[in-house]
Specification:
The protein contains nine helices and 49 strands. By secondary structure, it is mostly beta strands. The structure holds 2-acetamido-2-deoxy-beta-D-glucopyranose (5 copies). One of its GO terms (biological process) is brassinosteroid mediated signaling pathway.
Length: 711
């Protein structure tokens, strides 16, 4: 550390921890200091930097440093501030507002503060940084409006303010930013119309205004001199796009995103002149049939999204020579047969239309990963050709009129999501699934599948959703099912399963572990579909209908944080296994309409996340455990039609349930007494079951957890 003549110190991409030694300040000739990507939240510049007067470039990005931005800036000595040209502080955890170090950093060219937790407005002292070429402030919590004086920073080539909380409009002064190549204002709360001055940014390559509340009409004027534009994103605003039919897009344009801009009802003629590779015109109120020019104009497009319009008619019969890699046609009024597929297609979503006939037996799409055809009128058998889709990870054929057995596909190994619900499919659970060990989501509900649930189901260890309800499955539920440590949602209802509920339910570790909501969200994000983005996963719109609290709810998959076991309407016998009470994260338990006997487990009160509990229509006897009163989240309870007896426990939560008719949840149990039922407890009941007995059984969470740990 005595290398006083050192000019360039690059310690980036290591795992350095702790503070930097004071002696760093001895490197009086240092010009470049790069300590990026050390993932060290505790790194902070040491106090003694007085002599670092030669520093021109400082890079602390990707360290997740916790600290106040003002403290960091103020630790840089005057002489450094005057000299500094580049300051890269991206992706740390800096908090606070940018300090007012008026015109100190006058030589600064690059200032990157993106991906921190900065608050406050865009500070006025930036106006004096007249040499700035790059200003990156995206992904912070900045508020206030965009100051017009930013238009005076005429050296700017890149201005990125996206993903903040900015309000107001785009200043007309932005028209002066002649060198600007990147303008990203997406994901803020900006509104009003866009000034026509934007149209004079001749060097602009990338323009992103998406996901704001902009209004007004986009005309030729806005795009007049954008002769360098490659990518434009106007999605998710309240724009109306009204360009003359002879308008010509800049020849440089490669991708255009107009989702939810008002554009229809007719396909605007200028679309056919676009020579681009990516186009999103979803939710643009387009109506009617495809114009003649449509498929030839877009035969070189690799990404096309026309979802959520009212487009009708058939697809061209042969699409194999088209360039599409991702094609979204969801939620239109398309009819006719499914065409031959584009050779390079990786994602096809034709769900929610009126496609009919059968899935083509010559389905050739060697790169197809995501195939979504739900909610159409597709019938017949699933052809063997589906087995040739070796790269398939997501297949949704639900809500069609498919019949017969699922072909035995020996070629697919990567399926993560298989959704075949609501058809008339029959036969056993497809055996090829045992090779698809990355399966996370299996929904075969509302079909005519039969046979037993194979023991190999326990090998599908990543399974999170197993939905087999409304079929004709029979025999025991294999005990191997408890090997599914990721299982979050189990629905076997409305089948003919018999025998006992498997023991060792406590091995369902996802259900035993209390989850924080944030963790679900991260898991959904990590749960990537082979490199496709979260937005795409989201837009596939897979839904899950859930029976809970006596009502059917529809969950969007990405929101499906729901933890549930539904075994209702089977022929299960034996007792409710006592270790079911270790499923502390379970929110819904439905064992209704079986032939379960024995008592309700005493520790039921340990299932602290339980919101809905249905044990109705069984042969349960004995008393209702008083620990039930510990279920503070419970909002639905049904114990009706069993042989329960004794005094009904009472507690603040229990007493609020089912207020319109509190007796319904206990009806059909002749031995129950006390409020809310009308039978008075006899002196005996009151004595034995009421005070003495129930106080002996009082639930003690501490004992329970102690027992659990020992166990
Ligand atoms: C380096 O810096 C330390 C602390 O500032 C100082 O005590 C020491 O004398 C310096 N060494 C040299 C060689 O300049
Ligand atoms: C900009 O610099 C000038 C001259 O140094 C100074 O008078 C002025 O206050 C500065 N403006 C801001 C907003 O800091
Ligand atoms: C449950 O987990 C325990 C401990 O991991 C294991 O020994 C046991 O075999 C598992 N039981 C079943 C039925 O998988
Ligand atoms: C339990 O399942 C039965 C049969 O599927 C259903 O009718 C009932 O509403 C469900 N209970 C709850 C609480 O959702
Ligand atoms: C229940 O007991 C209360 C108080 O002892 C009495 O007033 C009521 O008539 C009894 N009801 C029935 C149905 O026996």
């Amino acid at each position: 550390w005595k290398a006083t003549s050192l000019k360039y110190l690059d310690l980036g991409n290591n795992r350095l921890f702790g503070q930097f030694p004071d002696t760093l300040g001895n490197m009086t000739n240092l010009q470049v200091l790069d300590i990026s990507e050390n993932w060290n939240p505790h790194m902070m510049m040491a106090g003694n930097l007085e002599n670092l007067c030669g520093l021109e470039i400082i890079d602390l990005s990707y360290n997740y440093i916790n600290g106040d931005i003002a403290v960091l800036m103020e630790s840089l000595p005057q002489c450094t501030r005057k000299k500094l040209q580049e300051m890269d502080l991206r992706y740390n955890n800096f908090t606070g507002t940018l300090p007012n170090l008026v015109s100190d950093f006058t030589r600064l060219r690059i200032l990157s503060l993106s991906g921190n937790n900065l608050v406050g407005s865009i500070p006025p002292w930036l106006v004096n940084l007249t040499r700035l070429t790059t200003l990156e402030l995206f992904s912070n919590h900045l508020t206030g409006s965009i100051p017009p004086w930013l238009g005076n920073l005429t050296c700017l080539t890149s201005l990125e303010l996206s993903d903040n909380l900015l309000t107001g409009s785009i200043p007309a002064e932005f028209g002066k930013l002649m060198y600007l190549t990147i303008l990203d204002l997406s994901s803020n709360h900006l509104n009003e119309s866009v000034p026509a001055e934007i149209g004079s940014l001749v060097n602009l390559i990338f323009l992103d205004l998406s996901n704001n509340s902009f209004t007004g009409v986009i005309t030729e004027e806005h795009l007049a001199n954008l002769t360098s534009l490659k990518q434009i994103d106007l999605s998710l605003n309240n724009f109306k796009i009204a360009l003359n039919s002879d308008w010509r897009a800049p020849s440089t344009l490669e991708s255009a995103w107009f989702a939810s801009c008002q554009m229809g009802p007719l396909f605007p003629p200028w679309l056919q002149q676009l020579k681009i590779t990516e186009l999103d015109i979803s939710t643009t109120s387009l109506k009617g049939e495809f114009p003649d020019w449509f498929w030839s104009a877009f035969s070189n497009v690799t990404y096309l999204d026309i979802s959520n319009n009212q487009i009708s008619g058939n697809l061209p019969a042969h699409m194999d020579s088209m360039a599409f890699e991702k094609l979204y046609l969801r939620s239109n009024r398309l009819t006719g047969p499914i065409p031959t597929l584009p050779t390079n297609i990786t994602l096809l979503d034709i769900s929610n239309n009126t496609f009919s006939e059968t899935i083509p037996s010559n389905l050739v799409a060697p790169r197809l990963e995501i195939l979504c055809m739900h909610s159409n009128q597709i019938g017949g058998y699933i052809p063997e050709s589906i087995c040739k889709l070796e790269q398939l990870i997501y297949l949704d054929l639900s809500n069609n009129i498919l019949e017969g057995e699922v072909p035995q596909c020996f070629d697919t190994h990567n399926i993560e999501n298989l959704i075949l619900s609501n058809n008339s499919l029959s036969g056993k659970i497809p055996a090829f699934l045992q090779n698809n060990t990355s399966l996370e989501f299996l929904d075969l509900s509302w079909n005519k599948f039969s046979g037993r649930l194979p023991t190999w189901i326990g090998n599908l260890v990543y399974l999170r959703f197993l939905v087999l309800s409304h079929n004709e499955f029979s025999d025991n539920i294999p005990v191997n099912i408890t090997k599914l440590g990721h299982l979050q949602y189990l629905d076997l209802s409305h089948n003919n399963f018999s025998g006992a509920i498997p023991r060792h339910l406590s091995n369902l570790t996802f259900m035993t572990t209390l989850q924080e909501e944030s963790r679900y969200m991260v898991e959904v994000e990590v749960d990537s579909m082979g490199g496709t983005t979260e937005f795409e996963a989201d837009s596939l719109g897979q839904i899950l209908s859930v029976n809970t609290k006596g009502q059917q709810l529809i969950y969007h998959r990405t929101l499906a944080y729901f933890v549930s076991i539904d075994l209702s309407c089977n022929s299960l016998t034996g007792k409710i296994p006592t270790d079911i009470t270790s499923l502390a994260a379970l929110m819904n338990l439905n064992l209704s309409s079986n032939q379960l006997s024995g008592q309700i487990p005493n520790m039921i009160g340990a299932m602290q996340s339980l919101e809905s509990l249905d044990l109705s229509q069984n042969k349960l006897y004995g008393e209702i455990p008083s620990s039930l009163t510990n279920l503070t989240s419970l909002s639905y309870l049904d114990l009706s039609y069993n042989s329960l007896s004794g005094r009904i426990p009472s507690g603040p939560q229990l007493d609020t349930l089912n207020m319109d008719n509190q007796t319904l949840m206990y009806i059909g149990n002749n031995g129950l007494c006390g409020p809310p039922v009308h039978k008075n407890c006899s002196g005996n009941d009151a004595y034995i079951h009421g005070d003495l007995e129930s106080s002996k059984e009082e639930f003690d969470p501490l004992t329970f957890y102690f027992g659990l740990v020992l166990g």
